[in-house]
Amino acid sequence: MKAVYFAWVRERIGKTEEEITLPQNIRTAGEVIDWLITRGEEYAYAFENPKVIRIALDRAHVKHDAPIKDAREIAFFPPMTGG
Amino acid sequence: MLRTIRVQHEDFDAALESAKLTKGRTDIGAVVTFAGLCRDEGGKLAALELEHYPGMAEEEMSRVVDQAIERWPLQGVTVIHRFGKIEPGAQIVLVVTASSHRVAAFEAATFLMDYLKTRAPFWKKEHHKDGTAGEWVEAKDVDDAAAARW
């Protein structure tokens, strides 16, 4: 699936997006964060406080316990500050 | 029901957008136009850089507009949000609501702004006048509380 990052999550990881292949045991959006953290210190830094991270699956907000199912795009970002 | 949602870098004309909702109609008794502007934060801010999630920004704004239309009797809604570098004094966001009566127009406009602030995928980064790297603007609890009251 495609992973996309925004704002300081993007800056800390150093990428705007990437293709990721998840291990089969990853079922929820939050578990993707746990797995990303194991991939390197830039991910550990971006997700050092996972609770504050917002997640979208196929461009819709979801909670961390939402199942990924067959989503094609997962996005990680800080709380929104538009308006 | 006129419904306009736009995400763009270019500035917008609030009076023109408002006029588009009312042109040729005689059933609208109230139009509320809200424009959000970039502050200079006491003179230290050179600009705000607005990052957004293309695609999701439009979709989420559309979902928020759908909720407003369900809750209030509106004849027209326009929501425009800008992205990119925006300097102090410039406009960032526009909400226009048109209804037969003022309460619906006022409430829907407030609801739209409260929800856009907490749900639309936009992030502001500060650029300081002294050239130092600015911080990402932090989300405020008061904005969450404002959205929660609806």
What does this structure look like?
The complex is a heterodimer of chains A (83) and B (150). Chain A has 83 residues and is of the alpha+beta class. Chain A has a single domain (2-77), classed as Ubiquitin-like (UB roll). Chain A has helices spanning 7-13, 29-37, 41-46; strands at 2-5, 17-19, 54-57, 60-62, 73-77. Chain A has a 5-stranded mixed sheet with strand order 2-1-5-3-4. By secondary structure, chain B is of the alpha+beta class. Chain B has a single domain, classed as Molybdopterin biosynthesis MoaE subunit (Aldehyde Oxidoreductase, domain 3, Alpha-Beta Complex), CATH 3.90.1170. Helices cover 34% and strands 37% of the residues of chain B. Chain B is built from 4 helices and 8 strands, in the order E-H-E-E-H-E-E-E-H-E-E-H. Chain B has helices at residues 14-22, 56-71, 102-119, 141-148; strands at residues 2-8, 30-37, 45-52, 74-82, 84-86, 91-99, 122-128, 133-136. In chain B, a hairpin with a 4-residue loop joins strand 7 and strand 8 (133-136). The two termini of chain B are 23 Å apart. The interface between A and B is medium-sized, with 16 and 28 residues.
Helices and strands, with pairings:
The complex is a heterodimer of chains A (83) and B (150).
Chain A: E1 2-5, H1 7-13, E2 17-19, H2 29-37, H3 41-46, E3 54-57, E4 60-62, E5 73-77
Parallel strand pairs in A: 1-5
Antiparallel strand pairs in A: 1-2, 3-4, 3-5
Chain B: E1 2-8, H1 14-22, E2 30-37, E3 45-52, H2 56-71, E4 74-82, E5 84-86, E6 91-99, H3 102-119, E7 122-128, E8 133-136, H4 141-148
Parallel strand pairs in B: 1-4
Antiparallel strand pairs in B: 2-6, 3-5, 3-7, 4-6, 7-8
Class inferred from helices and paired strands of chain A: alpha+beta
Helix-residue proportion of chain B = 25-40%
Query: Would you tell me the structural class of the helices and strands of chain B?
Result: alpha+beta
Number of helices of chain B: 4
Topology as H/E string of chain B?
EHEEHEEEHEEH
Number of domains of chain B: 1
User: Of all protein chain pairs, which has the greatest interface, and how many residues does each chain bring to it?
Assistant: A-B, 16 and 28 residues
Q: For the residues shown, what is the average pLDDT of chain B?
A: 96
Beta-strand share of residues of chain A: 15-25%
The third-level CATH topology of chain B is Aldehyde Oxidoreductase, domain 3
What is the strand arrangement across the widest sheet of chain B? 1-4-6-2
Percent in strands of chain B: 35-45%
Helix content of chain A: 25-40%
